[in-house]
Amino acid sequence: MESAFLLAEWLGTPAWMWLGFLGLVVALLAFDLGVLHRENHEIGVSESLRLSALYIALGLGFGGLVWWHLGAESGMNYLTGFVVEKTLAMDNVFVIAMIFSFFAVPRIYQHRVLFWGILGVIVLRAIMIGFGAALVTSFSWVLYLFAAFLVATGVKMLLSDGAEKPLDQNPLLRLMKRRLNVTETHHGERFFVRLPHPVTGRPALFVTPLFLALVMVEVADVIFAVDSVPAIFAITTDPFIVYTSNIFAILGLRALYFALAAMIHRFEYLKVALAAVLIFIGSKIFLADMLGLAKIPPAISLGVTFGILVAGVAYSLWKTRPGRARLAEEAGR
C-alpha cells in the first residue's frame, strides 16, 4: 500500500520524488537555523562562500538525480532553470542590499530577515507556480503571453538607466508607517515589541524596522517572481522541474547574499546579461514555431543561457578589476 502511494504520480512526477525534495528542504532549513545559526553572529564573506558552494552543490546534485530518474531532457531543463533562477536571485541581492541599508539593519540580524524571507518565498512561489501551471494546462496560448512578457521585460532592462526609486516613496511602506505602530529604532532581533503608546501610555504592540525590512524583502521577491516564473515556464511546463529549480536556486540566496553584498560593484554589467537571457528565453518559443520545431532543444537552451551569463559575469569582473579606475584616470591626464 505504501509503495503504491510512493510510486503514484503527482503532477506528473512520482510522489517519492516530491516527498524527498520537500524532506530535503525542511532538513536544510532546520540545519541552517538549528545548527549553523543557533546563535546570532555576523556572516563573513568566507563563510558565505562556503555555504553558497554547499547549496550550489546540493542544487546540482539534485539536478543529477532528476537527470537519472526523469531523463536527460528533464535534467537539462532543470539545470537551465536552476542557472536562470540563480542569476535572477543574484539580481535580487541588489534590491535586498538597498532595503537593509535603508532600514540600517545590523549585519548580525540580516540572516534572520533572510531566513524568514526564504520561508515566505517557498510558500509564495508554490502558489504562483501552481497558478501558472493551471493556466498553461488549461490555455496553452498563455505560454506565448509569458514569452512576449519576457522579451518586453528584457528590452526594458536594456533601456533602463538602472536607477532605483527611493524606498521612502514606496506606497506600501508609507501605508505601513501610517497604519502601524513602528518603533524608531531596532530592538535586537525582534519583529514585534510591546511598548507604552505615546498618546495613551498603555502597552501597545509595535513593529520594528526589522519587520518592515522583512515585508519589503517579501514584496521584492514577489516582484522578481513576476519575471522568474514566466522564465522557467518558457523553459519547461513540468511543475516538478519548475518548482524544484526555483527553490534550490533561492535556498542559497541568503548564504550568497553576504558575499555578493560585499562585491556588488563588481557585477555592474550583470543586468545586461540577464536582459539578454530573458530576451533569448522568450524569443526561443517564437523561434521554434518559425522553424517548425516543437521546441528548441534543451541542450541549446542550456548552452546559450550559460554562455550569456558567463560572458556577462566575466565582462563585469574585467571592467571593474582593481586598478582599472586608476589606469583610466591616468590615461585621461
UniProtKB/TrEMBL annotation:
Keywords: Membrane, Transmembrane, Transmembrane helix. The keyword Transmembrane applies. It is a multi-pass membrane protein. GO terms for cellular component: membrane. Pfam families: TerC. It comes from the Bacteria. It is found in: Membrane. The chain crosses the membrane at residues 15-36, 48-68, 88-106, 113-135, 141-159, 204-225, 240-260, 272-293, 299-318. InterPro entries: Integral_membrane_TerC, Integral_membrane_TerC_rswitch. The keyword Oxidoreductase does not apply. PANTHER family: MEMBRANE BOUND PREDICTED REDOX MODULATOR (PTHR30238), THYLAKOID MEMBRANE PROTEIN TERC, CHLOROPLASTIC (PTHR30238:SF0). Belongs to the TerC family. This is Tellurite resistance protein TerC. It comes from Muricoccus pecuniae.
